[in-house]
Specification:
The complex is a heterodimer of chains A (about 260) and B (about 425). Chain A has nine helices and eight strands. Chain A is an alpha/beta fold and about 260 residues long. In chain A, strands 1-2-4-3-5-6-7-8 form an eight-stranded mixed beta sheet, sandwiched between helices. In chain A, helix 2 (about 70-85) packs across helix 3. Chain A is globular and about 45 Å long. Chain B is built from 15 helices and eleven strands. The longest helix of chain B has 20 residues, at about 35-55. The N and C termini of chain B lie far apart (about 55 Å). Chain B is about 45% helix and about 15% strand. The chains are: A alpha/beta (about 260), B alpha/beta (about 425). The interface between A and B is medium-sized, with 24 and 23 residues.
Amino acid sequence: MFQSEIVNLFGGRKVEVHHAGQGPTIVWLHGPHGVRRNDPVIRELAKRHAVVAPVAPGFNDVDELDEIRDVHDLALHYDDVFEALGLDGISLVGHSFGAMIAAELAAHVPRRVARLILISPFGLWRDDHPVADLFARPYTTIDRILWKSGEASAEMSDPANFPNDPVEKAVTIVQGLTSVAKFIWPIPDKGLRRRLPRVSAETLVVFGAEDAFVPPIYADEFAAAIPGARKAVIADAAHMVPYEQTHEVMRLIDQQFGGSVRAA
Amino acid sequence: MKFHWFHLMPYPYLPNDFKERYPSVWVDPPAAELYDPVRGHQVYNDYLDQLEYAEQVGFDGICVNEHHQNGYGLMPSPNLMAAALARRTSKAKLVVLGNSVALYDPPTRVAEEMAMLDVMSGGRLVAGFPVGTPMDTTYCYGANPATLREKYREGVELIVRAWKERRPFAFNGKYTQLRYVNPWPTPIQTPRPPVWIPGGGSVETWEWCIKNDFLYAYLTYFGYMAGTAVIDGYWETVERLGAEPNPYRVAFLQFVGVAENDAEAEKLYAEPAQYFYNRCFHVNPGYAGPPGYASIATIRKGVRSQVRDSAAQVQGKLLSWKEILDRGCVVAGSPATIVDRLNDMADRMKVGHLMLLLHFGNMSHETTLYNTTRFAREVMPKLRHRFNEWEDKWWPKDTLADIRKPAPIGIAAE
């Protein structure tokens, strides 16, 4: 189980931040599923790290999105979160929506992020390889496009991890997707390509080879746009690669951050 | 009670196997493959003739609406249709239902065009402002579902204010910034034309309509029996807010087919009804619920998307004429049958404005005129008196007594 705190920011904003484990600090920015109570990736990271996992605006309450109007506001919101937490030069891992936020933060405020791992990021667009429309399907069926098997892992669909009531389940999914939609509708290209050359963090881009939502060719796009970035494409995995190939992703995180992750 | 002749303007030549071959009638049915503009020329002109005919036989309003990339709704610009009707009619009110305000930047464009319609028509405009369906707004026009409603409401407030203010003003909104708001022309109706809000069953919409004195119109394709729950919710909200329970604050849409008897009704209306429900109303359910479009309160209340529910009902199966009648989607039969059913509707729903779909699906021009004539002569007079005890405050009041008719100028022989 994670420890959670509410961090107050100026302008009345409140951010829920989860903490788990001990060791060098690593920041985890979650994907479209938010932070589940027993998130298996955070649990794994927490074995060797002090994990800091803020919840994205909107995921707990869509009203939080009112005054975060675009990706610039979003990037600065995260800069405020880390300022409030006293974290600088951070080791940052983002998945999916969280990877887009991580890339935006690292581009807007390069000094805030020292080491960066983008897992299944979106935010770039190629007409010849369109990112699939995550929203043009009943939202209860998004797992079909996100997971290689077409359905969520047992742990991620565990009722202990996720509301059992169908209405509350729908509300949880919709709140998260509303937040994602707000920043990528109707096409996930809000100018990130122009900003990525600003990123100064040592960067690794990770994709699942069978990602049906964001085609893995975007690993090349991100790696080419970020100075010095490397890429890794993991077989037998899709958009949910950190949950589908957890050990391989952990190995890459250890390798990328190595002994250089500073003590908390 | 008032009666309005509503046209959806469907394309009547979708192929028989449309449902098998195409995933959706809306958003992405390939236009270049399915739509023939030469046939479309005839279709538009037939449809406009029908709306003009509705005025002649005594309908109070003639209604047009807005849809995009839609095989059953060929009016991406309802204002163009209303402009054509403004010149060719003089009595019926022009019920434009409406302009999806969030799609127009700046929204003052809508204030301008609607004021033009009001002036051209001599004060006959009813100004409808739907938020717009998810298909029209978020998928066809790329509007962000997370901000659509807020942008829409800001736009409606700007339009209404632009009509009321006596001096130019600056507007510093969240979605629209204008240094000089001063639309020309101004509408004839003061302080503004009546505003009608077509909406689904959302609690926030009901409250907003009541607080702003807007009429609430519930446009469902599934008839009054299925629609009663939504209208009940509206009346509960009226009571909760202490507003006047005036039937004229609500409008409802109903498909109707008038005939000599049940057998003739089936002969005339079964095919067009099945064309509509089985071919036209075939929408990919994935387009029905983009995240953020419905508020969390609405989701919690369990008011679900009409499209998704109905799509779930009809997806993959073909509705028979009997099922269409049993569900109450279409009210059809002899004039006496229809008067009974619509009296039942009036009793249950207390709706003062009845919008009629007397053309639906691929109904022929002749059948449409027959249906319209019989409704006007044999049904309307028997229901006219309903709700006479109430004043209709949501209807044009400043219509000019003397409407300038078109006066074509001939070329003198040389």
